[in-house]
Write a structure and sequence with these properties.
Order of helices and strands of chain A: EEEEEEEEEEEE
Number of helices of chain A: 0
Strand content of chain A: over 45%
Radius of gyration of chain A: 14 Å
Oligomer: heterodimer
Number of strands of chain A: 12
Shape of chain A: globular
Number of helices of chain B: 0
Order of helices and strands of chain B: EEEEEEEEEEE
Distance between the termini of chain B: 35 Å
Helix content of chain A: under 10%
Helix content of chain B: under 10%
Distance between the termini of chain A: 41 Å
Chain lengths: 113, 112
């Protein structure tokens, strides 16, 4: 079945460090790929998305590229801030059938000053 | 902009009690879903709806009921609460196939 695998956290970085959170997926057809962010005590917010191979999603300095050949959608940011501390979820919507989101288990990011 | 509104935000129940978690959206979205979030397991789909009068089971439907009488509302009912249902519950909606989902702020539910 469809699944998403994320790197386990927590990821601990100093402010202005480079961030990579790995995400790989298994899916039939051509899924749409998403990154969601969850700040403490809040719901999930869409961070970025990509709907076809080689698309690059970007928002708030974060980027991820849809790589069909490696079935990956790694999240990157060049210079993290303390305010980026949150849990990040990689997710997909299968290419066929009901568009239910399939989530990874989440990666907690902790950024220190 | 209200978006997706969930009530209550917190609830404590005793084993065997029943309750309804409310979810309302004001974006005229056809698709609505309920998820539960448990530590180390991400979010898992409980039930979903593709429009008023149409519902279906997700990954973990046992112990929960849903109905969708209007486009706006999608309540989740716990029939007889069990400690295993202690979790954070999220409602989400989207406008169509392949579109991102908009989430409410969640309901934190504890079953004693």
């Amino acid at each position: 079945g469809d699944s998403v695998t994320q790197m386990e956290g927590p990821v601990t970085l100093s402010e202005e460090a480079f961030l990579t959170i790995n995400c790989t997926y298994t899916a039939t057809g051509y899924p749409s790929l998403f990154w969601y962010v969850q700040y403490p005590g809040e719901g999930l917010q869409l961070l970025l998305k990509a709907t076809k191979a080689d698309d690059k999603g970007s928002n708030k300095g974060f980027e991820a590229t849809y790589r069909k050949e490696t079935t990956s959608f790694h999240l990157e940011k060049g210079s993290v801030q303390v305010s980026d501390s949150a849990v990040y979820f990689c997710a997909l919507i299968p290419g066929t059938g009901f568009q239910k989101l399939v989530f990874g288990t989440g990666t907690r990011l902790l950024v220190s000053p | 902009n209200a978006g997706v509104t969930q009530t209550p935000k917190f609830q404590v129940l005793k084993t065997g009690q029943s309750m309804t978690l409310q979810c309302a959206q004001d974006m005229n979205h056809e698709y609505m879903s309920w998820y539960r979030q448990d530590p180390g397991m991400g979010l898992r789909l409980i039930h979903y709806s593709v429009g008023a009068g149409i519902t279906d089971q997700g990954e973990v439907p046992n112990g929960y009921n849903v109905s969708r009488s209007t486009t706006e509302d999608f309540p989740l009912r716990l029939l007889s609460a069990a400690p295993s249902q202690t979790s954070v519950y999220f409602c989400a909606s989207s406008s169509g196939v392949g579109q991102p989902q908009h989430f409410g702020d969640g309901t934190r539910l504890s079953i004693l």
